[in-house]
protein-tyrosine-phosphatase
Amino acid sequence: MIDVHCHILPDVDDGSECMQESINMAMIAKEQGIDKIIATPHYHPEFKYLKGEELNKVCEEFKKQLKENNIDIEIYLGNEIYFTYDLIEKISELDFYCLNKSKYILIEFPPTNFPLNLCNIVYELKQKGFIPVLAHVERYIKIHDDPEIIYDCIKTGAIIQINSSSLIGKQGKEIQRFCNLLIGRNMVHLVATDAHGSQRRRPMMKDAYQYIEKKYSKEIADNLFINNAQCILDNKEIIIEEPFEKSMEKVSFLKRIFRR
């Protein structure tokens, strides 16, 4: 499996605190069946997180340590970009990393100041040559209140990511139910760990993969955990199914059940 959202690099943000913890996270990931990880440290204008070439040096040293410890996991570099209202205007000046030097960018939004014009933001990022990957959309109350926001964003060109822990109920049954609502409408393209440590928010994906395989199909599980993520690594277009309109929600869920 491929994890496209993981805070595994040591001492660069609020994720892993040291190299040994990063190594421990990698060992957990390997046991889970993860063999490729895009490290996505936070890129936040108000916090002094490591960025630019210094961040790349940490990534290279981590890869060296993995090799010395015989942990066979490929590490790629990206950022999780925190949205601010001047992001679009300043984006060409910022030294963030796209996901493995691709056109895909991972972006999160302020939960208490969620943008009302999300679809327009997706459109403007697309116009600038990026494909926005919207991180952990199940965490936003605004989207729970109006899932059509995600439908419109997908139609505009966004890629949607949810967290593996949310999918299997670790964040509560309501968030799990919402994840299934989105999947049932073809409105999820990636499942990732958003892991932050080896003791808390660990890089766990196996249970989530098996959950999708059992509830929907192996084909869907492979797309959410492997195939679409590989497209990002290869900088290729993700071929996504048309999202279902709200009126088609129950029909789409039944179609996926009987696909198994």
